[in-house]
């Protein structure tokens, strides 16, 4: 935990403290019988610290922390054999988790529905999702505006069946027994929608191919 993150958490407003307390209660109910309050508090607070140092919207930190903690606890439960329902899990990784990996996540969730699980992360998470990527995905009827850049964590990588990397190079985590794919794609960072569209379309093609290889039921794959 950085000193700045710790300072920010120690100086929370009353509303933020209440929001974190409510988040902890919700997570406690969701993971009842799997993880106790201490584990949930640890994941929630460490998730908060992941975003605190670079955040420009402190009022949203408790919500981001809750969402990230939920993902991490879900991943940990799968790793420890508490929550593996047989669905394939894919993790999309890039540098800033603001463009390529977010578009891949958006297509995957849209096309697969509830028949598979996908997460995303970055080696150097940005502050917000690339607006051009949001606009390009909106053209395809997929809303990724509520997503947010986040780092990857060990439990998330370990829970994945397939890890798709996009430009994070040596920073990408390597765990034995995982299926790895490296998608070579132009970085949309700093580009306008016109330049992002070809990247978006190639990501969609690759996601559809991956879903086919994972034998996701065709009924969930939508139409071109």
UniProtKB/TrEMBL annotation:
It comes from the Bacteria. The keyword Metal-binding does not apply. Residues 88-213 form the Phosphotyrosine protein phosphatase I domain. Pfam families: LMWPc, Phosphatase-like_N. InterPro entries: Phosphatase-like_N, Ptyr_pPase, Ptyr_pPase_sf. Keywords: Arsenical resistance. NCBIfam families: MSMEG_6209_Nter. This is Arsenate reductase ArsC. The lineage of its organism: Bacteria, Bacillati, Actinomycetota, Actinomycetes, Propionibacteriales.
């Amino acid at each position: 935990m950085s000193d700045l993150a710790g300072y920010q958490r120690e100086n929370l407003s009353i509303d933020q403290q209440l929001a974190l307390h409510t988040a902890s209660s919700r997570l406690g109910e969701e993971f009842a019988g799997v993880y106790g309050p201490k584990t949930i508090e640890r994941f929630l607070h460490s998730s908060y610290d992941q975003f605190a140092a670079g955040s420009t919207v402190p009022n949203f930190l408790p919500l981001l922390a809750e969402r990230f903690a939920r993902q991490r606890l879900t991943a940990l439960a799968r790793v420890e054999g508490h929550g593996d329902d047989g669905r394939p899990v894919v993790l999309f990784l890039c540098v800033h988790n603001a463009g390529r990996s977010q578009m891949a996540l958006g297509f995957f969730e849209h096309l697969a529905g509830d028949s598979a699980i996908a997460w995303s992360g970055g080696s150097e998470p940005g502050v917000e999702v690339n607006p051009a990527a949001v606009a390009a995905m909106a053209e395809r009827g997929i809303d990724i505006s509520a997503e947010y850049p986040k780092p990857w964590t060990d439990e998330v990588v370990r829970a994945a069946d397939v890890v798709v990397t996009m430009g994070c190079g040596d920073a990408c985590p390597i765990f034995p027994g995982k299926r790895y794919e490296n998608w070579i794609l132009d970085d949309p960072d700093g580009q306008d929608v016109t330049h992002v569209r070809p990247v978006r379309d190639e990501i969609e093609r690759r996601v559809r191919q991956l879903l086919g290889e994972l034998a996701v039921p065709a009924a969930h794959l939508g139409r071109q």
